[in-house]
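A quick aside before the break. I want you to see a complete sequence-to-structure record at least once, exactly as it would be stored in a machine-readable document. Don't worry about memorizing anything.
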Amino acid sequence: MGGWAGAESVLDTAGIPADAPGVVRGSDGHGALEQITRLLGRHRVWERFPVGI
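That is the input. The structure line, written in tokens, reads:
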């Protein structure tokens, strides 16, 4: 999940922490897209799920 420009306020309002696993906040679309592309290579962000579920 990623956002830039005005999207940061949407993520904040939704209660999504800036340092949540798999969340990208960029200053512009290009920077955010680069980060998201790297995350896509991992397929899933397993840190999002607590152990034992």
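Two observations worth writing down. Residues 1 and 23 are 5 Å apart (CA to CA). The radius of gyration is 12 Å. We'll return to this after the break.
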